[in-house]
Every structure is written in structure tokens, then in C-alpha cells.
Amino acid sequence: MRTKLLSFIPFFLLFFLSCKRDYPFIKEWKSTKVIVVVIDGPRYQETFGEPNHTYIPYQSALCKEGTLCTSFYNEGTTNTVNGHTAICTGNYESLNNAGLDIPTFPSFFQYYIEQKKAPASKAWIIASKDKLEVLANCSDKTYMNKFQPSTDCGINGLATGYREDSITQKNVLNTLQQMHPDLMLVNYREPDFSGHANNWNNYIKGIQQTDKYVAAIWDYIQSDPYYKDQTMLFITNDHGRHNDGWKDGFVSHGDDCSGCRHIALLALGTDIKKNYTCNLNYSQIDITTTIAAIFNLNMPYANGKIIDDIIQY
User: Fold this and answer.
1) Omega prior to 191 cis, within 30 of 0
2) Is 22's pLDDT higher than 80?
């Protein structure tokens, strides 16, 4: 029996080593901070799906500094609260989209604060939409009302209404400068807000304005020694919108049509391949698992996988 066991060990080691890139924590990450920016509700066909990237020139230029994922999806409920919940918890749920439900599972914010023994000031949710304050908590009995990040959502928190993205942008840059958080999620309400208003011109302006905002965040990261060469930036969406000719087109979203599901992901940072296009299929919950790997967090309820193809090993 002992001989058989010893003969099995080399095979086991070979198998383990051959699969090591699937193991979440094998890389020595240079990134020690993560910022996730969620641009709310553009259709892929108006962002990276538009051949010339007409409305997003800044993100288009940033592709040379990082990786663009062209096959990235919301595979759950295609609305704001559930899209953001998937990114933060690694789980697709069907929560009330008005902010009446908190997520079932803990987020990477709660795990980060708990496992790194970090103060709430090191983890922030800054959102134009007030309802996204629900992301700071969960209904899991072990984590409910515990290890919550700092929040700056809407006019003055949950149930106070949306605010302008320009205010959110100012607050993001001030928080980065003054508080130096290590983990942050940012939400801009545009272009979703104008899409629902059936205002095509403002919908496009929302895409263009948020394009400038994310470029300004990346510029700030490069200018601050606390963040430069130590920060991974994910730029993505919570959902898309209906395709032209389907229901009311760009005005709404919420079903499983390709327009609602297909979204963008642009990843930047020292650990990210530069000037690279990833065509493999990934989804929102994979952002969660990738962030867990960067911070070496144990997130037992997260269901995603590392977005391995974008990583510079």
C-alpha cells in the first residue's frame, strides 16, 4: 500500500502543477489596490461594439494600456442592483431593484474589512444611485450589519434619490486623495438615466461624459504614488439595453436579450496584459473571484472564476 501511495505522489504533483493557474492564489500580485467603475447601462453597440469607438475615445485609447474583454456578460438579472450585486458578491440574484433588498451573500468589501482587519475608511462604495447603498450589507447571519464599508450614495444615502454624476466624480477624486482607500466601487447613473427618459442625445452624452470620468480616474492613479503601479482598475457595466427593434429598444432593459446581457470590461493595471484583447467568455461574478485572488480573500460563496486570460503572469 505504501509503495502504491509513493508511486502516486509524482503523478499528483504533476497534476497539481499543470493546473496551478486555476488556483486562485498562486500569483504574487503587484496590485495592492482595486477600483471597480460601473458605468450604468450603455449598450455594447454604443461602446466597444461600435467599430470606431466613436463615443468612448478615452477608453479606446486606454485599451493600449490594458486588456479589453469583448465577450463579457451579465448572466443574471439585467438591472442595476442585481448587476452590481453580482460584481460584489460573486452571485447572481433577483433582488428588488429599488433598493428594498440587501444581497444574500457577503461582498468582497465585507470580507476585505474582516480578513484584512481594515477600517471602513479603506473600502468605499461611491454611487450616483442611492439604492446601491444596499451593497454595503448582506442578510447572511454571520455578516449582516458587520464589516461594512464606507458609503457615499445618492443625494444623502438610501432613499434620498439619485445625484448628478459630476458630484460623484468630484467625491471619488476627493476620497482617493484624502482617504487613500484600497478597495472602491464607483457607480455613474449615466447613460442609464437618460436612456430611461427616452432621450437619445443625452444617452449618448452620458456615454461620452462617463468616458472622460474613467480616464480622469486612471490619470489620478498614475499621478499618486500610493496608487501608481499598485492598482488594478476594472471598468465595466451592470447591464446593457434592449436591441433596436426589440421592445422599446435603448429605452429599457431587464430581460435576457443579447443587448441586455452583453456588456464591456476594460481592465488596467500592473498585473494586466497590455494592448491585449480577450475573446474568451467571462461574466460579472468573475470580477469578484479575481478581486478575491488579488487580496487573497476567502470568499466561500462566490461562484466565479479568475479572469485568467487578462492576467500578466
Assistant:
1) yes
2) no
As a whole number of angstroms, the distance between CA 63 and CA 61 comes to 5
DSSP bridge partners of 153: 127
Tens digits of residue pLDDT in 104-118: 999 999 999 999 999
- Listed in sequence order, the residues at least 6 apart from 116 whose beta carbon sits closer than 8 Å to its beta carbon are 122, 295
User: Rounded to whole angstroms, how far apart are CA atoms 102 and 208?
Assistant: 31
Instruction: Count other Cβ atoms within 10 Å, centred on residue 150.
Output: 19
Q: If residue 64 lies in a helix (H) or strand (E), which one and from where to where? A: none
Q: Within its chain, how far is the Cα of 95 from the centroid? A: 18
Cα–Cα distance, 264 to 303 (Å, whole number):
20
CATH number of the domain located at residue range(s) 25-310 in this protein: 3.40.720.10
Whether residue 2 has pLDDT greater than 80: no
Q: Is 174 helix (H, G, I), strand (E, B) or coil?
A: helix
Residues 170/187, Cβ–Cβ less than 8 Å: no
Q: One-letter amino acid identity for 201?
A: N
Rounded to a whole number of angstroms, the CA Rg of the chain reads: 20
182, burial (CB in 10 Å: exposed 0-12, middle 13-18, buried 19+): buried
What is the C-alpha separation between 195 and 131, in angstroms, rounded? Answer: 18
CA-CA distance, 153 to 163, in Å (whole number)? 8
Contact criterion met (CB below 8 Å) for 53 and 250: no
Domain spans of the chain, in order of start = 25-310
